[in-house]
Amino acid sequence: MTTSALPIDHSGLEMLPMQECIARLHAARMGRLAFFSDGYPMILPINHGMDGDSVVFRTTIGSKLAAAENEMPVAYEVDGIDADRRAGWSVLVRGDARTVDNPGEVERLNHLGVWPFADAVPRTHWVRISTYEITGRKIVHQR
Amino acid sequence: MTTSALPIDHSGLEMLPMQECIARLHAARMGRLAFFSDGYPMILPINHGMDGDSVVFRTTIGSKLAAAENEMPVAYEVDGIDADRRAGWSVLVRGDARTVDNPGEVERLNHLGVWPFADAVPRTHWVRISTYEITGRKIVHQR
User: Fold this and answer.
1) Interface pTM (ipTM) of the complex?
2) Which residues 15-74 of B are in CB contact (within 8 Å) with A?
3) What is the CB neighbour count within 10 angstroms for residue B127?
4) Shortest distance, CA A104 to any CA of chain B (angstroms)
5) Is B46 exposed, middle or buried (0-12, 13-18, 19+ CB in 10 A)?
6) pLDDT tens-place string over residues B22-52
7) pTM, to two decimals
8) Which of A38, A105, B16, B23 fits a disulfide with B136 by CB distance 3.0 to 4.6 angstroms?
9) What stretches in chain A show pLDDT beneath 50?
10) Which residues pair with A95 in a beta bridge?
11) What CATH number does domain A14-139 carry, 1.20.1630.10, 3.40.50.300, 2.40.50.140, 2.30.110.10?
């Protein structure tokens, strides 16, 4: 039996409260972005920042920017996995990607301290995920 | 200047050879699966195994199984991120999800040693990713 007070989903995972999901997004520096490209989903690891409760990230010309310019549906996932303890949690943001074009807003985001690890090519464009849903799950082991 | 002998993509990432991508898939125990659900991409962390060069995973009734039953396009990503060194790599498999229904095949996969960390609910169904493309990227820092 689990002693958790949180609801459990159909697959036996504990559902995290929304505020905890947002706190975990704020604490994380990187995650994985999924979007459609050529009829297939694509997943790319990126570094993100939080502008209030919304996920923002820098990008350069390419498939991520194209997704944003077309305001395509995207998903963004952050997680923490502890393989030794077979433990883990994940938070999933679903929404639409939007380019940030307003110069004042760009200037503000430039001060968020988001510096992609991949820095060989300058990532001068900002994308915001206009959030539709935030959910989180955590593995619980029954003893 | 980078001293890498591997090709560099438009975003300044080193492209990993296919055999190295497959080796990294074999070495990894978990990754993230993306697929479409309700018009938005979904990303879920899962534990996978390799059956030859194809990715297989266990699941239970739910959105992942529904994606496989409908032979939907999926993406599967494994990565290794070292935040302190701002380093990282990722491998991306794109393909179609297929349920594994043949009893002999199921029996064989049952012996791969794939035990999901999330084990509160038995994950008795196997899904195979019928691969369309495998690519890998690595961050290179120019000094």
Assistant:
1) 0.91
2) 29-30, 32, 34-36, 39-45, 60-62, 73-74
3) 24
4) 26
5) buried
6) 999 999 999 999 999 988 999 999 999 999 9
7) 0.92
8) B16
9) 1-2
10) A74, A131
11) 2.30.110.10
